[in-house]
Write a structure and sequence with these properties.
Oligomer: single chain
Number of strands: 13
Number of helices: 8
CATH superfamily of the largest domain: Nucleotide-binding domain of ferredoxin-NADP reductase (FNR) module
Strand content: 25-35%
Structural class: alpha/beta
Helix content: 10-25%
CATH class of the largest domain: Alpha Beta
CATH topology of the largest domain: Rossmann fold
Strand order of the largest sheet: 6-5-8-3-4-7
């Protein structure tokens, strides 16, 4: 049975077993990227790094897509970072949401980009391209990440400099946060690169790993399976190429039921 939910402008029919949450804020970064925050349902639990199925009612039918939850598990609100696709079944509508609008969310989060899927180590790399930074936006704001690792390196590669702003905003928020600032200290390193425009750090992250420039720029040694751990989220090609480089360095792919040295989020492949 579907339950009607009253909104300011209409009655929204919410499918059974689905949350209908209220949009609190929307930030547009570029013509292609935006961030929004919405209410968090009472009793909704997730591990930092997991994704949820979120959606909208379009012409009387719910349309869902998998979205990494960009807020940490302790946050009282939920945050998402999205691409804008002009003819995308969901994003063409989602990009027009305003505060007060309702967003649907299925009740069961899941995913492999979680700390539990990694074996203990000293340095954690989070390799991301584009909106693939979203699960790491959650993890870099989670105290548990810094309890488990001595050093956290977030890499974010985009085509243009403007697309990097969300990542810089996240790092600034941590530096100015009431308890994260002291907890994180200098443990977090942010390595942002672009592929199209002139920028001090330019190139695909896979090239920068392969030619060693990333390690030189960061002042860290090459990948070492005894201490380094990795998480990867990005395009299909980036996942494949980064996975191969980590395996070449001796790291083994893990999963929720078999923790190892690195993990990939496969929900967004294809």
């Amino acid at each position: 049975m579907n339950a009607p939910v009253k909104t300011d402008n209409a009655e929204l029919i919410v499918p059974e077993g689905v949350f209908a949450e209220t949009v609190l804020s929307v930030t547009h970064y570029t013509d292609h990227l935006f961030r929004f925050r919405m209410t968090r349902p009472a009793g909704f639990r997730f591990r930092s790094g997991e994704f949820a199925m979120i959606g909208l009612m379009v012409e009387g039918k719910p349309i869902y897509r998998a979205y990494s939850i960009a807020s940490p598990s302790w946050d009282e609100e939920l945050e998402f970072f999205s691409i804008k696709v002009p003819n995308g079944p969901l994003t063409q509508h989602l990009q027009r949401i305003q505060p007060g609008d309702k967003v649907l969310m299925r009740k069961k989060p899941t995913g492999t980009l979680v700390l539990d899927a990694l074996t203990p180590g000293k340095r954690l790399y989070m390799f991301s391209t584009g909106t693939g930074i979203a699960p790491f936006a959650s993890l870099i704001r989670d105290p548990e990440t810094y309890e488990k690792f001595e050093e956290v390196i977030l890499t974010h590669t985009c085509r243009d400099v403007a697309e990097l702003k969300y990542g810089f905003d996240l790092v600034d928020e941590i530096k100015n946060h009431e308890f994260l600032a002291e907890l994180v200290g200098d443990k977090l390193k942010h390595y942002a690169t672009v592929t199209r425009e002139d920028y001090p750090f330019k190139g695909r992250i896979t090239d920068l790993i392969e030619n060693g420039k990333m390690f030189t720029d960061l002042g860290v040694p090459p990948l070492d399976p005894s201490i380094d751990r990795g998480m990867i989220c990005g395009s299909t090609a980036m996942l494949k190429d980064t996975k191969e480089l980590l395996e070449k360095a001796g790291l083994t792919e893990g999963a929720n039921n078999k923790p190892a040295e690195f993990v990939i989020e496969r929900a967004f492949v294809g």
